[in-house]
């Protein structure tokens, strides 16, 4: 079973911080060419500088992927630099609370646009390129891999963040639908659902609530909060040919939390 992604080209969204950054760095370390993209231009420039501006494995592309033109330019920049794209990781997330009994339609629309629609559109665009570049290669096992990142909110409701929960659930259904549609083209689509992971949002929440860390640890069977790198390892596996017969699946990386404790805003 080969987990190698040496020489592959990946696009990672939300790559300026947190989980998206951990995923992008993980893929670089494993030998892939990686396009880091995020709307946070300053943050993106800072993290890419850490790899060296002249590193041929790394390309930064600042921009709001919710905009269709930005998506198209992102793909064009990737092809200009590396001539192909083999892996897409939709790690961009936008989290905001909403009143479960009086949800502002604007917030709900924004949650769906940021957390599901943008990733779906980018996946469709990238998939078309994957199909094109695999033409005339009937013997290849994998023409491409797409991995979507979500949270336990997708399957277990968080009333205080109803809009976000709905968007995460929609994203996971889009993962399954695309997996079925793209399977004949040898493109796999999977998801990674997380909790008890040190995301950017959790770091911010822990600063506000000193008791939260122990609450999470107590509610996690494996008894700790995992690093973002541990989730990145799961993404790497799903992106590699080691997972070549896995598609349409949502892998939960939560230390067993979903088995033992009600999901709360701490898990996002």
From TrEMBL:
SUPFAM superfamilies: NAD(P)-binding Rossmann-fold domains. It comes from the Bacteria. InterPro entries: NAD(P)-bd_dom_sf (IPR036291), SDR_fam (IPR002347). Gene3D superfamilies: NAD(P)-binding Rossmann-like Domain (3.40.50.720). This is SDR family oxidoreductase.
């Amino acid at each position: 079973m080969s987990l190698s992604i040496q020489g592959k080209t990946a696009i990672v969204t939300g790559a300026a911080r947190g989980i998206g950054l951990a995923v992008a760095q993980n893929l670089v370390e494993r030998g892939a060419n990686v396009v880091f993209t995020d709307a946070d231009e300053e943050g993106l420039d800072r993290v890419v500088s850490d790899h060296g501006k002249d590193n041929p494995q790394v390309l930064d592309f600042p921009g709001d992927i919710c905009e269709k033109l930005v998506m198209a330019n992102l793909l064009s920049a990737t092809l200009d630099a590396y001539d192909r794209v083999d892996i897409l990781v939709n790690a961009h997330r936008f989290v905001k609370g909403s009143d479960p009994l009086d949800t502002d339609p604007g917030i709900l629309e924004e949650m769906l646009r940021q957390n599901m629609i943008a990733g779906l559109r980018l996946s469709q665009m990238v998939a078309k390129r994957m199909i094109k570049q695999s033409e005339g290669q009937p013997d290849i096992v994998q023409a491409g891999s797409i991995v979507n990142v979500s949270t336990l909110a997708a399957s277990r409701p968080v009333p205080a963040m109803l809009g976000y929960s709905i968007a995460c659930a929609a994203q996971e259904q889009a993962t399954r639908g695309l997996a079925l549609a793209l399977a004949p083209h040898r493109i796999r689509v999977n998801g990674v659902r997380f909790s008890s992971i040190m995301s950017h949002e959790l770091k911010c929440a822990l600063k506000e609530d000193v008791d939260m860390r122990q609450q999470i640890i107590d509610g996690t069977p494996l008894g700790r909060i995992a690093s973002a790198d541990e989730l990145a390892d799961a993404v790497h596996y799903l992106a590699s040919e080691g997972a070549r017969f896995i598609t349409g699946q949502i892998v939960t990386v939560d230390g067993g939390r979903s088995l033992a404790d009600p999901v709360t805003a701490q898990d996002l």
